[in-house]
Amino acid sequence: MKAVLISNPGNIELVERDIPEIKSRDEVLLKVRLAGICGSDMHIYHGTSPVATYPRIIGHEFVGEVVEKGKEVKNLKIGDKVVVEPIIYCGKCYPCRKGRPNVCENLKVMGVHVDGGFQEYVVVKDANVHKFADYLSWEEAVMIEPFTIAAQATWRGGVEKDDFVLIIGAGPIGLTILQYAKYKGAICIVSDIVDFRLEKALELGADYAIKASENIEKEIRKITGGMGVNIAIDAACTPKTFEMAVNVVSQAGRVVVLGFDTSPSSIPQFNITKGELTICGSRLQTNKFKEVIDVFNKRKLNPTALISHKFHFTEIKEAINLLEEGNQNVFKVILEF
Ligand SMILES: NC(=O)c1ccc[n+]([C@@H]2O[C@H](COP(=O)([O-])OP(=O)(O)OC[C@H]3O[C@@H](n4cnc5c(N)ncnc54)[C@H](O)[C@@H]3O)[C@@H](O)[C@H]2O)c1
Ligand SMILES: [Zn+2]
Ligand SMILES: [Zn+2]
């Protein structure tokens, strides 16, 4: 079989590998069907991921079919359509004991710290595998993992019906968050610097789409009758957008950050104290697969609207080149296996 390997930063290649074998009773062998390319895969390719190790078979957004299973695997059968939850945690450290295994001290993410899903076959523990309804297409299902990020971010921000939510950045992550916040009944304002992406946000249900500018804080105060948004979710992830997010939330508001930028933002403590703001990070997801699969099975979202391009996995270099061009009409790029 073939696999997509990043041997070291800047070097991506197709390599020949043996089909992996089941070694313990709780493992399953999957035939990978579709996988999504994520911003973090691009970081691993560029050598700018602070956590990845090399050589690495990348890919953490993937779906496939069960083709073989270990003796103790009871809840899955051959032919089941499944999505992989790509996190491996210790279960013992403080965050694990607190029910937050996504930030385990010994966290390993498939495709980042250990080999991932950009290969024709993969062996995973049954605990990492979730079944979805047969009637969902592979294209719909490959978006389950990105939507778990949105489920997490809206949960961290405590998004509820009729809350005003600002989503900064209308890239694939911002637009999944938009859809999930709308599903939860929020009033959503999306900002971006690119008109095309704002149009996409409106198509996907945004109540307001505003161009990021110096006046954005005023515009947000106007829309919310002076109150500010109850939750600001920063999916543009720059030091400046984080500062802006803190400035536009209401009293008792929440700010959710998703970025990996290491440069500092300048944020005075007064606003945080005055409004008792909550500022929190959101990373990957905690127990969100079942919830998101349920929403997908009920077809409450429009996941395929975010898929803009599809390649065969042997065309990985073409797919990477397309993403490198930074074209504004490129959203989620998926690979067929
Ligand atoms: N924490 C997590 O679990 C997690 C998971 C996946 C991705 N991420 C992060 O989420 C971020 C977004 O991912 P993506 O794939 O959507 O990226 P993307 O680059 O496609 O989207 C970012 C969007 O922000 C817009 N933008 C840039 N500056 C802006 C500004 N000043 N105001 C408003 N919008 C602005 C861009 O035009 C773009 O549309 C990345 O930084 C990524 O690392 C975090
Ligand atoms: Zn991803
Ligand atoms: Zn742990």
From TrEMBL:
Pfam families: ADH_N, ADH_zinc_N
InterPro entries membership: ADH-like_C, ADH-like_N, ADH_Zn_CS, ER, GroES-like_sf, NAD(P)-bd_dom_sf, Zn_alcohol_dh
CDD domains: Zn_ADH7 (cd08261)
Cofactor: Zn(2+)
Residues of the Enoyl reductase (ER) domain: 7-335
Keywords: Metal-binding, Oxidoreductase, Zinc
GO molecular function per UniProt: oxidoreductase activity; zinc ion binding
Superkingdom of source: Bacteria
Family designation: Belongs to the zinc-containing alcohol dehydrogenase family.
Protein known as: L-gulonate 5-dehydrogenase
Species the sequence originates in: Caldanaerovirga acetigignens
